[in-house]
Amino acid sequence: MSNVITAKMVGELRAKTGAGLMDCKKALTEANGDDAQAETILRKKGISQAAKKAGRATSEGLIESYIHLGGKVGVLLELNCETDFVAKTDDFKNLCRDVCLHIAAASPSYVSRDEVPAEDIKKEQDIATAQAEGKPPPAVQKIVEGKLNKYYSTICLLEQPFVKNADQTIQDLLTSKISALGENLVIQRFVRYQIGE
Asked: What is the pTM of this model?
């Protein structure tokens, strides 16, 4: 027997996930009223929708700036989307501000793994291999892989835990906004300035 899906349930799920009303209702129906399961369904759907949109051109967007209190840290960010219409929405502008705030706080060096220079990766691999000396080769491989993933999560923006919600990465945040806004979104580049650096 299925549970009755109320407007309140749909509204609460929408507030939590940012997904559309009909998507929330369908997810709750599929999850038989279970809020946590419906949220999982929406996240999976958002990831698949984001993957479908990944190849679409992003020639619009915004350049957002953020200066931290006291003027000691500043960020410039280029976040692209598909249409000028989406770039003008409050959701998109808020995403730009949130990503700028995150960059100011977390100080990433690169947008993604693709941008990390090969010599830096090699250096980290060598350090991790030296630290695992004396262990069996399969263990060394897992240790090196784990340390590299940790390294990436400290220097790559998309892999960092979001400062406002450590349960999601910046990539998760971007994926949820792609699903909510219905367009491909790409963090093109950023620059972080800090006094004395």
From this structure: 0.70
What residue spans define the domains of the chain?
Answer: 7-53, 60-112+156-194, 117-154
CATH 3.30.479.20 fits 60-112+156-194, yes or no: yes
Buried b or exposed e, range 145-165, using 16+ CB within 10 angstroms: eebbeebbeebbbbbbebeee
Task: Judge: domain 7-53, CATH 1.10.8.10.
Answer: yes
Work out the burial of residue 134: count CB atoms within 10 Å of its CB; fewer than 13 is exposed, 13-18 middle, 19 or more buried: exposed
Model confidence pLDDT, tens digit, residues 125-172: 899 888 888 888 888 888 888 888 899 999 999 999 999 998 889 998
